[in-house]
Amino acid sequence: MKQLLLIRHAKSAWDNPGLRDIDRPLGERGKRDAPFMANYCKDLGLDIDHIVSSPAKRAFKTAKKFRKVFSESTLDKETELYFGSMEDWLYMIQSLPENVVLPAFFSHNPTITYFANTFQGPSTDNVPTCGIVRLESSADTWSDIDYNNTKVLAFYFPKEVR
Question: Helices 57-69 & 28-43, crossing angle to 10 degrees?
Fold first, then answer.
């Protein structure tokens, strides 16, 4: 059995409309929600050991706030989480080293919602900012994970878990 988390970046700031999308920072709500949701994961007993983030500033800052809570985890940037397709994301999961126990991938809408909805189980119209999708696969190795052997276990959204 394998588990993984898909996490949408926390709420971004929009006070500088001239910024490139990739450079948009976290807003005040995002700065509060990210550590709250990281601690919520910790309270659930989810011990994230590998963090992979989009290079976009708001996603990477969200990932870094999770890293403060899960200080033993590794933290990497992956361009495919910003520009890539759902197939790129699946390949990234399938390419994980087998010593990774619980990875968390930090990314963006709409792809994160589309990707979550390709797996078995409940679906959602929208993964909100700092929303978490918890997936579980019957696969024994990361390379064997696919849409048919993986299901959505739960959605954790800041407004619903507070």
Answer: 40
Res. 17: pLDDT tops 90: no
Instruction: Please name which of 66, 85, 83, 92 lies closest in space to residue 21, comparing C-alpha atoms.
Output: 83
The matching CATH number, chosen from 3.40.50.1240, 3.90.950.10, 2.40.400.10, 3.40.47.10, for 2-161 is 3.40.50.1240
Strands (E), the chain: 2-8, 50-53, 74-77, 103-107, 132-137, 150-156
Q: What number of residues does the chain have?
A: 162
d(CA 121, CA 13): 33
134 forms bridges with which residues in the sheet?
Answer: 5, 154
52, 105 contact by CB (below 8 A): yes
pTM summary value: 0.97
Q: What is the domain partition of the chain in residue ranges? A: 2-161
Give the whole-angstrom CA distance, residue 159 versus residue 156.
9
What average pLDDT is seen over the chain? 97
